[in-house]
Amino acid sequence: MHVRFSTCLGLPVIDDSAEEVFGTIAGVLLHPDAGKVEGFFVQIPRFLRSEELFLPASDIVRWGLRVTVRNAEVLAPPEEYLRVVPLIEDGRTILGQRIRTESGKELGRCKDVQWNTKTFSLEWLFPRRWFTWGLPIPVTEIAEVKRDAIIVRDPPATAKEPVPEKKSLLEVLPEIAEGVTRPTT
User: Fold this and answer.
1) Helix H or strand E encompassing 176
2) Among 17, 170, 28, which residue's Cα sits nearest to residue 112?
3) Which residues is 109 bridged to in the sheet?
4) Bridge partners of residue 152, in order along the sequence
5) pLDDT of residue 48
6) Which are the contacts of 83, defined by CB distance < 8 A and separation ≥ 6?
7) How much is the average pLDDT of 94-110?
8) What are the tens digits of pLDDT across the range 43-72?
């Protein structure tokens, strides 16, 4: 299944064995170099406050109208996952980041992403400029993810072929024109 992040916010996270909701999806952690979803931040309601824990993508059993995990114990503070800490500290984000081409043309900010729920690999970036959405950009077009921008490859230049001059049918087929007689009315 292909899912956009904007449709996942607020999805309930449930335990596979107990079938009880223990939190909702509040954020996503994307690996800027591998183009993978590393995991999700899950908002856990507590008395008079809430807590945000990390859910690795590898611990998700099913994805649908709710996210099913093996058990609730896979949720932990992000600091407890060694491979997650460097990604958080790195500062190279994808969501909310400016997108520009190699030649410097601004395409907007990445306001949404799409991934495959089987492999958790990113597929599309969705730029937005002011109030309008731009054309989706496939992840294969990303050249580099920097701290200040996502650099995508320039679109290929379209070769402009010269347009031939329009000729009349009589010029194109002169041998036919000689033998043509006009009908009389």
Assistant:
1) helix 174-178
2) 28
3) 98, 128
4) 101, 142
5) 81
6) 38
7) 93
8) 998 888 888 999 999 999 999 899 999 888
The single-letter code of the amino acid at 29 is: L
Distance CA 3, CA 140 (A): 17
Enter the DSSP assignment of 144.
Answer: E
Strand partners of residue 68: 14, 62
End-to-end CA distance of the chain: 68
CA distance 110 to 103: 18
- How far is the C-alpha of 143 from the C-alpha of 138, rounded, in Å? 11
Closest residue by Cα to residue 24 from 38, 14, 4, 10: 10
pLDDT band at 157 (very low <50, low <70, confident <90, very high): low
Per-residue pLDDT of 31-43, as tens digits, reads 999 999 999 999 9
Q: Taking the C-alpha atoms of 121, 31, 124 and 54 in order, what is their torsion angle to the nearest 10 degrees?
A: 80
Distance separating alpha carbons of residues 27 and 113, to the nearest angstrom? 12
Helix (H, G, I), strand (E, B) or coil at 56: strand
- pLDDT number for residue 73: 86
Q: Write out the E strands in 59-97.
A: 60-63, 67-69
The structure's pTM equals: 0.77
Distance between CA 3 and CA 126 in Å, rounded? Answer: 13
